[in-house]
Amino acid sequence: MTEPIPMLLFCPMCNTRHVDEGDFATKPHHTHACQNLQCGMVWRPAIAPTVGVWFLPGFNNGINKLNAWRDQQAPAVQPATPSEPLLYGAYLELHAERTEQRLQWGGAAHDDQHGELDWVTFIKKQLRRSNANYRNAMVKIGALAVAAIESYDRKHRK
């Protein structure tokens, strides 16, 4: 089995930071359980083995330079299917951007202060900025869309 991919993991339900410790810090595994005892969510962040870390290895105390990391780790990352080698990398980038947004803005507590029209406005602002670097803007827009969906789901949880 391949080495686990280090990732900044957050529970998709309650947004609690997930850091693997002990045997799980080095043992390849796919499934993670929320460490918030009141939540208990179990999820699978990727099809490849992953490990939750405090900081991505080699990146200035956790400042994410995903492109350089991805280039170093490329042989360990397995595509979703053999015909979609770039698709899985895009998902990793969206996840990393979303993680950066959580760290920058405060996660669910901040996100849930915004309504549906706010999210549309945020995405439109990124679209206007997309001329400078289209691809990076699309990654930011994708992560904003994920934030909007997560916030919606938390607000409408039954």
Written account of the structure:
This protein is mainly α. The protein has a domain at 1-77. Helix content is 44%, strand content 9%. It is built from 5 helices and 6 strands. The strands form 3 sheets. It has a two-stranded parallel sheet. A two-stranded antiparallel sheet has the order 2-3. It has a two-stranded antiparallel ribbon with strand order 4-5. The protein is globular and about 45 Å long. The model is unreliable at 61-65 and 73-86 (pLDDT under 50).
- Count of strand segments: 6
Structural class: mainly alpha
**Overall body shape:** globular
Assembly state of the chains shown: single chain
Assign a percent range to the helix content: 40-55%
Mean pLDDT: 77
Strand content: 5-15%
Largest beta sheet: what is the strand line-up? 1-6
| Low-confidence residue ranges | 61-65, 73-86
Specify the biggest β-sheet.
Answer: 2 strands, parallel
- In DSSP terms, counting alpha (H) and pi (I) runs of 4 or more, how many helices? 5
Rg of Cα set: 16 Å
Helix-strand sequence: EEEEEEHHHHH
Distance between the termini: 39 Å
